[in-house]
Amino acid sequence: QVQLVESGGGLVQAGGSLRLSCAASERTFSNYDMAWFRQAPGKEREFVARIGWKGTITDYTESVKGRFTISRDNAKNTGYLQMNSLKPEDTAVYYCAAGDWSTNRRDYAYWGQGTQVTVSS
């Protein structure tokens, strides 16, 4: 059982940056692919970015390419999402997840509780 805890969310102006962290409770975190999803009010949870268990393969949804960077440090059992050039439409609760390489939330067995990101215009 892997427990995930996100941190780093907050309120930022458009064009600003935030770095989200996802701390895992178990060393087995390094055995899993990791992803970030987000959910805006009234919308379904959507895929944002994913990274392979080695940290060498990444993938992003089109709307964040060139602005967001996903990474991980398996020695620290921690994943990250660096978000630059933030836009109001990035406002959502951001969740980290651990599981199988996929953009489908159903393929991730472990989830954090979420962290709120609010981007003001």
Short description:
This protein is mostly beta strands and 121 residues long.
Q: Sketch the topology as an H/E string, one letter per element.
A: EEEEEEEEEEE
Query: Treating each run of at least 4 consecutive H or I residues as one helix, how many helices?
Result: 0
Percent in helix: under 10%
Report strand %: over 45%
Keywords, separated by commas or semicolons:
single chain; 121 residues; mainly beta; seven-stranded mixed sheet; four-stranded antiparallel sheet; 0% helix; 50% strand
3D structure, described in words:
- With 121 residues, the chain is mainly beta.
- It contains no helices and eleven strands.
- Strands 2, 4, 5, 6, 9, 10 and 11 form a seven-stranded mixed sheet that branches.
SSE inventory with pairings:
Layout: E1 4-7, E2 10-13, E3 18-24, E4 33-39, E5 46-51, E6 58-60, E7 68-73, E8 78-83, E9 92-99, E10 108-111, E11 115-120
Parallel strand pairs: 2-11
Antiparallel strand pairs: 1-3, 3-8, 4-5, 4-9, 5-6, 7-8, 9-10, 9-11
